[in-house]
Amino acid sequence: MKPEQSQKSEKNSKPVPLAQAPTEVQLAVDLIMLLEQQQLPVATVLAALAIVQKDFQRQLELNDKAD
Q: Judging by DSSP bridges, how do beta strands 6-8 and 15-17 pair with one another?
């Protein structure tokens, strides 16, 4: 998906420009583009994303405990 393409809002079917999309959608689009440019096997990308998710989940849990 290209940054200039519109995203569909989850609340309705009207396209939302990427610049107005939620931050997590913008980040997801950027990450998809970055990963696709690397031309890695899908299994490798998914394995790496699982590691990243675990790391950020751990950070979130540590932050929650600190509050």
A: antiparallel
Structure-token pair, residue 40: 């890695």
Taking each continuous run of H as one helix and of E as one strand, the counts in the chain are 2, 2
Token reading at 4: 């200039």
Question: How confident is the model at residue 65, as a pLDDT?
Answer: 87
3-class DSSP state for residue 2? coil
Please check whether residue 1 is in contact with residue 29, taking contact to mean a CB–CB distance below 8 angstroms: yes
CA dihedral 54, 58, 60, 65 (to 10 degrees): 160
* pTM, 2 dp: 0.68
